[in-house]
Amino acid sequence: MQKLSARQTTVILLAGLLALVWTLGTVHARPGKRYDEGSQMCRFIDKGEYDWPSDHWGQGARTFKKVCQGCHFKGNDKGVPFIHPEIMSSEGWNKVFSKKRKACAKDGSWDVLSANELLILNDYLYRNANDTYDPNDADSCG
Q: Which pTM does this prediction carry?
């Protein structure tokens, strides 16, 4: 077997490191944190206090189903569009909650939610938006 030069060894190591970094960066597409414009804080939504509430089985999902999809379901008679978490990107959901330009925010429909419930709802929608699904991630495949 032929001995590799120092340059060849360096190139192989750098290529391996780049492959590892690329793989780690793409394995978990779901975001781990989000910046909340309203509170001007970074919220860590994949662990700790906000992990469970912002996932499919947590408070954010229950609030979304109860409050949002209470009106925004398929075939509703209110004339509002059907919505689901994947209808917007993560940043799109952040804008919905920070700008509050949607009819729901303006007409008082959100008034049934506390400030904390709105944050958790935004965490849930941000974490499960259309740009966060990874079919190879056991946490988001189903």
A: 0.70
Phi-psi map region of 44: left, alpha, beta (phi>0 left; psi -120 to 50 alpha): beta
Token duo for residue 112: 């049934």
| Per-residue 3-state assignment (H helix, E strand, C coil) for 13-38 | HHHHHHHHHHHHHHHCCCCCEEEECC
The whole-number pLDDT of residue 134 equals 60
Contacting residues for 54 by C-beta, under 8 A, at least 6 apart: 45, 46, 60, 120, 123, 124, 126, 127
- Give the start-to-end residue ranges of the domains of the chain: 31-127
Model confidence over 89-134: pLDDT tens digits?
Answer: 999 999 999 999 899 999 999 999 999 999 999 999 999 998 886 6
